[in-house]
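Sample 3 of the quickstart, ligand fe (ii) ion:
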Amino acid sequence: MGETHSLEDRFQAFVEAENKVEPKHWMPDGYRKTLVRQISQHAHSEIVGMLPEANWITRAPSLRAKLILLAKVQDEAGHGLYLYSAAETLGTSRDQMIDDLHSGKAKYSSIFNYPTLTWADMGAIGWLVDGAAIANQVMLCRTSYGPYSRAMVRICKEESFHQRQGFEIMMHLAKGTPEQKAMAQDALNRWWWPSIMMFGPSDDQSPNSAQSMKWRIKRKSNDELRQEFIDKTVPQAEFIGLTIPDPDLRWNEETGHYDFGTINWTEFFDVIAGNGPCNAERLAARQKAHDEGAWVREAAAAYAAKQASRSARRPAQTHAA
Amino acid sequence: MSTTTHQWPLWEVFVRSKNGLAHKHVGSLHAPDSEMALKNARDVYTRRSEGISIWVVPSAAITASSPDEKDPLFAPSDDKVYRHPTFYDIPDEVGHM
Ligand SMILES: [Fe+2]
Ligand SMILES: [Fe+2]
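Result:
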């Protein structure tokens, strides 16, 4: 004993001192594996998450709404890229991650396996789904892995408009005709429970959580994040006159938080296992987009090869401008 | 499952946020050539007027110092306190120097 500290101990002390781990640093295998799994799942969620909303781009009710939705969906593609890049710094390849998504081996957030039935769903998704994602991502800005943390800072800057545009849609519908208000309430009814499930199983049911917290990958537990989100969201629903579909929801004077009803974890694990309403459809859409884009990738590679052989005959440039 | 095409090279992206500032590393992306890398970098890293100039550099062209040799590599600059202005005692009466 005495002077000798294992690499693991030194690593633990390093992250506990709030240092950021960079790609070339020594890290425990488990830390690397946990990050690859978490960051790639996060990336897949951004990419698959474009599908439910893409469903409404051509049917947006106005040009303004269409431009906003397009910009939001484009942002999500960017988020996927930042995250894939962060995962690649850990030694996994983009191709491997994409293949794992398409083969069903890799997971993505179960929320995206629910259908988007009406325009109000664009409001509910922005407000609740992006809202829940933001709560998680704000925490992850302080994660111990440098490239992940930097990707999160970028993403958080872009996310805030996502939630605001969603809330605006809900607000307008809630102030509209009785039919429009009913449509907003229906969307809230369908998205509320899946949204609060996004934070993952309760702390006592999530065995990896404690280790992630110890490594400073996660900074708050699933239950803490869920409670914060509920406390923030309930007054927003009240403000626009919509009702959260939970009869057990009430303010608890003692704790200073909202108490809420029991979450249907059977549904959650069932959707994760692949039995949600849209699991097959989402993966098929991803695979189709990938296959149909193959010729574009091939053409770009052929063009690059041709340009390279041409410029090999020209003198090289000297200085970046 | 079908595998993806052979992977395109990785590029590091640097953005000058405004005139007079240095380019700063913002992230990376895959692209078949420098021209596509620039266009993709514009779409991915400057959607909100984050920059007025972009550099893309093949990641493979970067030579990085290793964190393990951090101490010996940077040690020579740590023990030369006389390189800092605070090392010198100049009487206050002399004024700002
Ligand atoms: Fe996102
Ligand atoms: Fe978003």
